[in-house]
Every structure is written in C-alpha cells, then in structure tokens.
Amino acid sequence: MPFTTALADDSLPAFDRFVDRCLDRGPQYDRATALAHRNKWPALAADMVLSILPLSEPVAFDGWITGAGSAAPFEALVVGRGMVGEKAVESCTMAFAGTDAAGFEHSLVSTKEAKPSGEQNGEGRIRKFFTIEREGLKEAVTLDLPIYPNGSDEVLASVVAEQQTEH
Questions:
Q1: Measured distance CA(23)–CA(138) in Å, rounded
Q2: Buried-most residue among 43, 117, 132, 133 (CB within 10 A)?
Q3: In a structure prediction context, what are the per-residue pLDDT tens digits for the chain, which is 167 residues long?
Q4: 138 DSSP 8-state letter
C-alpha cells in the first residue's frame, strides 16, 4: 500500500495506524509533515507536543490532531528530530484515547517481534520499552499504558530511530 494512502486511512485500528504512520518505515518527519498539511490536520499546541515528544532536546518538532471529528476519540501524531549522543534521530509518536491498551501491546509484540527492554512504573501508568530490528537497524519503541487497562484506554506509542537520509 502506498505510504500516502496508508497514512490517510483513519478506519484502521489504532495499532495499525501507529504501524502505518510511525513504525513500518521508521519515523519520517518530512513525510508526516507533508501528510498533515495535505490532510489539513489541525495543529496541536506546542506545549502539548513537547509533553508527548520522547526527545528531551528536539531541534525540530510538530504535532497534529488526527481524529476524524468531534465524535471520534482523541488522537494525535507528533514527530521530532534531535540528537542522542552523536547520532541524529527522528521520533514519531501517536496518542490515542479509547484504545485497548492490552491488545495494542500484544499486537506490537506478536506482529513486530518487539523485544522487551525494560519498564518504569508511574502513578497509575506504566512505561514499557521495546526494541525492534528493521532492515538491520534498531528502533526504540516505548508504550505508555495504564497499569490497569479497561479496554478503552489512553495509549501513547513512540518510536525513535537513527535519522535515515534518502538517496
């Protein structure tokens, strides 16, 4: 499926939208920005983008509300560029409301062979870290989930990978 078609399909389940927009080709700041402008997604406030962004000192960032309308649960896409040590990285994050958190995590592990690499407990939430190897490159995936999922949860899913330049 072409990238632009896949990214525009809001009828897919939340996990599949995360895969299409962030995971299958890795984070791609320029493509996500072009898609957001093409689809005329409303911008997300900068303070909200920074609260979602997994990079501590981004050199560029942007975010949009991608939900299909006021009746749809909240959904956002946030992208960023930054440095981790000496490496230029890009990130892609999606925030979902009304999503099955346990099913989302299960799909990540079963369909993308994500390997757990740690977790942090917070107040009412748990952050789980995974690694995925794609085309010989490692990507860091983070899921921020409720400790006690109920099937209609808030899920924050991020992927950070070394920036790839297209030739």
A1: 12
A2: 132
A3: 334 444 445 567 899 999 999 998 889 999 999 989 999 999 999 999 999 999 988 999 999 999 766 667 889 999 999 998 888 999 999 999 999 999 999 999 999 999 999 999 989 999 999 999 887 888 999 999 999 999 999 999 999 998 876 54
A4: E
Cα–Cα separations (whole angstroms), residue 126 to 15, 43, 133, 147: 18, 27, 23, 6
Burial class (CB in 10 A: 0-12, 13-18, 19+), 84: middle
3: three-class secondary structure by DSSP: helix
Residue 55 identity: L
HSE-up of residue 158 (Cα within 13 Å, Cβ side): 23
Cα–Cα distance, 164 to 37 (Å, whole number):
22
Give residue 45's identity as a one-letter amino acid code.
A
Residues in the chain: 167
Tokens for 74, please give them. 């909240």
Task: Quote the pTM value.
Answer: 0.89
Structure tokens at 20: 């299409």
In the numeric block, which tokens belong to residue 126? 């748990």
